Predict the 3D structure of the following.
Amino acid sequence: MGVFYLLSCWVSYLIVCLFLVIASAFLGYCLYIKHIHMKYDHIPGPPRDSFLFGHAPTMIEETRSGRNIHDKFLQWAEMYGPVYKINSFHKVIMAVTCPEATKEVLMSPKYPKDKLLYERLFNRFGVRFLGNGLVTTTNHEQWYKQRRIMDPAFSSLYLRSLMGTFNERAENLMDELTKLADSKKEAKMLQLVNRVTLDVITKVAFGMDLDLVNHDSPFPKAIETCLKGMVANVRDVFFQLNPKNRPFIKEVREACQLLRTTGEAWISNRRTAIQNGDNVPKDILTQIIKSAGQEDEITEEDEDLMLDNFVTFFIAGQETTANQLGFCIMELARRPDIMEKVQKEVDSVLGMKQEISYDDLGEFTYLSQVLKETLRLYPSAPGTSREVSADMTIAGYNIPGGTIYMFNTYVCGRMDKFFKDPLMFDPDRFHPDAPKPYYCYYPFALGPRSCLGQKFAQMEAKVVMAKLLQRFEFSLVPGQSFDILDTGALRPKSAVVCNIKHRNQ
């Protein structure tokens, strides 16, 4: 009995000690949060939801409810000014709409992407996702090396050579729309442009003929699932703890695995072709393989990095352009006057010819304005963030060093102080003679970390839209939502369902 008594006393003592350690750690954490609050209390911002969690509950609720969280950031920017704070546990983020600060930070290479966000994009619920690819790596030297190797795949000379593929894949979409117009069936335009942009990227980036306009594929659904998983993983730290989310988490893991195993197979085939001395294109896939180095022995880290970039370009090369096209079609269908004006330009440039040349793209002045205005209201990639190590003064507020800055082109694009009547779709904002927006419009980010594929994306968008406008009239089927779905990238919430008919030319 004495032994059991001593043992029970010892266990009780350990429990008390453990409780005291946990209580001390919690008290220490609370004191640290209080220190952080005091450090940033002079900066305006919305009231915190709670002492411990900061604004995290609002972020989680906005995401779970299906609302576009960037509208909340816009509301706060209009209430609290050009810089305001957002608290999440012990982290503080500065939301910045000040053009001068935007220029200072984004145009400089000395401010890295913040580790808080981009490390959460490394994997998706335990399965490696974007890893240390070109978009997500926070190490400047690693990024610079990758960027230098990828540049040839986006040179003007190489992009010119892609016009044949842009035309060919866009023609597949026109053939499908012809069938729908002839049969008087409704066209789900967002789904169709998703397929054509994925068709383009798999062909021009990876040399694969999938013909996705005419064939079903698991890839569009896998990309959408990965992006939804990305949002859940980044914004809700408790997401994995909820048993109800396990089926979705399983879907996300399988989708990530599908993209990476596809990459393994395509990279292996291309590497074999290179080793055999076959003539291979200088496309993204070839450049990805070059990024692993010229050594005979490729390490596991090299393999992972190649797959990181494969997934990065596979998703970024399709999702952003497809969403821009979907929103553009939606807005033109709502504004017949603008559609008529841009159709007249397309007719004057192309006439009745079907093949669009590289030189033709430069003649689409008003179409370019339409596409830019689409990105002002509906930027596919709404924002970016940087880590600023030194103190900085913005709008009279001293921001302590070591703070994360968030820059949001969606917010800036919808603020009246930057754009008059900001919710009105007006392509003349981007007329060649109009004053250029001063660091408040950056749908492809700014500076050295701006989007490498922006010229590629806009060439593709022009080809698809020019062919569509040349041949078809389209109107929205009534009853659709014009809301925005936030899946990390912004996309139309509806399917942009249209009635399609041939133009009387």
User: Anything to note?
Assistant: The two ends are 101 Å apart (CA to CA). The mean pLDDT is 89. The chain has one domain: 42-502.
